[in-house]
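Archive transcription. Copying these from loose printouts into the bound notebook so they stop getting lost. Printout 1 of 2:
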Amino acid sequence: MNNNEKKILLCEDEDSIRDFVIINLERFGYKVTGVGSGEEAIEKFKATPNDFIMVLLDVMLPGIDGFTVCKEIRKINNVVGIIMLSAKSQEMDKVNGLMLGADDYITKPFSPSELTARIDALFRRISSSPVTPMISQNVDELVSGDFILNTRSHVLTKKDEIIDLTQVEFQLMEQFLKNPNTALERTVLLTNIWGEDFFGDEKIVDVNVRRLRMKIEDDPSAPQHLSTVWGFGYKWIE
């Protein structure tokens, strides 16, 4: 493991919370860089876009809010893990953050154990996946119609055009293409992707599927491939 693998960028404007998070995460081996505004976060990330494996973003910030920062970071890096932190518990705030590319959402106040568990789970998912293309003569591919998912380089193409995916979106596509025409239960997807120790709401599956549809379907409102099995889960139709 190199020195960059456990680096986290924390954007939190309240000094006491920022210090609290840094102290607790550094106890578990993470190296945390703290900033107090969205502008600082974007500047810091742009300067070293491949330096951090994860970003923790407070939603309510002076100036640029956390949602905007999340959107800007996703334009730069589609692989880095993003967790939103917010005192708000409204459903739409969670949906907005996830739709903009966040991987998870934690509502304040949170315990050190909950925060660490969420970060550990996301870190395991990210660190187990390659973040740069690998050249190999034995390329593993999952093919379904116009779609080809390269499981080594983590690249999805549709009619030879690359579709940018986050780590979660890639893992969802992998689950669906490995189980074509099979209804996959939400709880199964949640366990396989987010892990058995995930603390959050299973609706995170629905939001990420919605985001994935927007990238892969010609008409996301009338999906031809990623179908909903009402009251159960989702199914990939070949």
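Printout 2 of 2:
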Amino acid sequence: MKTIYVDDSTGKQIAGDLKKRKSASYDEREATVKAIVENVKEHRDSALFSYTEKFDGATLSASNIQVTDEEIKEAYSEVSPELLSVIRKALVRIRSFHEKQVQQSWFTTEEGIFLGQRVIPMERAGVYVPGGKAVYPSSVLMNIVPAKVAGVSDIIMCTPCNKEGKVAASTLVAAAEAGADRIFKVGGAQAIAAMAFGTESVPKVDKIVGPGNVFVALAKKAVFGSVSIDSVAGPSEIMVLCDETANPRYVAADLLSQAEHDEMASAILVTTSEEVAEKVQKEIDAFVPALERKAIIEKSLEDFGYILIAKDKQAAFDCVNEIASEHLEIVTKDPFSDMTYIRNAGAIFLGQYSSEPLGDYFAGPNHVLPTGGTARFFSALSVDDFVKKSSLISYSREALEEIHTDIESFATCEQLTAHRNSIAVRFE
């Protein structure tokens, strides 16, 4: 990890470097993804099945692309009772948190005037869940639950299968528990295109959410506009803000929890204590050789790992807000007070026992978070992502008569005579 003494330009410099991670990996693959998306859009199932055989080695058809009830039942038999219990406990916490986000329709009335806002769930949402080398039942829960709580009537999920056409048992069980309506055995950019435009087998959705590799992210970017998406996610990030009271061993372990995701993941320590900075580095050096994903962690820390030493708390806060990390842990003497100085972060973890993986799996808040500095203007995935809001307006003739000349004046100012006439004609 690179040690840097913070000055006024440090935050901007690092934020810029982190943003480059996405563009560097995306540019060279964009044309490939665009071709896949266009092919699926035009040739539908035939292209979808062809790409699945090419990339995943599985032979799919209209008769076996959708996961059956029998396959879900088999998945339950393969998942241990202990894991099923954990999934169900996590599901309760995640659902309970998201239920607090639900907004109701509302209206107000005056004499002759009715105004309001109608909150309407989307009809169909598409959830993408990665497969391949790793399985992510936690991502299944985090993406399906807010859609379910919002009232989406049809939730479909796409996830890759293996060469035998099987989907990971834990993924299927998590999807069934969370309430997926249909599951399709297809992954990659081709799955995103199928959900965006529809094929003979996979229905078109209104919104696509869920994590994925660079091909999935670029496909979501390519189809945005035809459907809504959650975001074009970048590599994972963690930042730990700490002072002299922090336990260096805990801090080191937490930084490594995100560095293991991939070589472009970012782990950043911001501290006002040189002593803590040195101890955290020593703990990291001791941890890494014993961890399974050692090579990935070492590359991540070499390229995007930083220890930032700030002269005081204000300099540390400024740096944190400039970088706007996906995950922020505040491990200080008074984390709840320090939290009030933070404007930009995807999720904030307070205190030495609120480790980032707590949020990944079990606490309840969503772990689908803004990356690459977009926490400055984006939020965590929520129930709001699966609803639309329609404004309601009704005026009586008497209410409109009181203001019609004001509206006509506005229209005249903007030289929109048909607008003006639309009001004026009612009072001829």
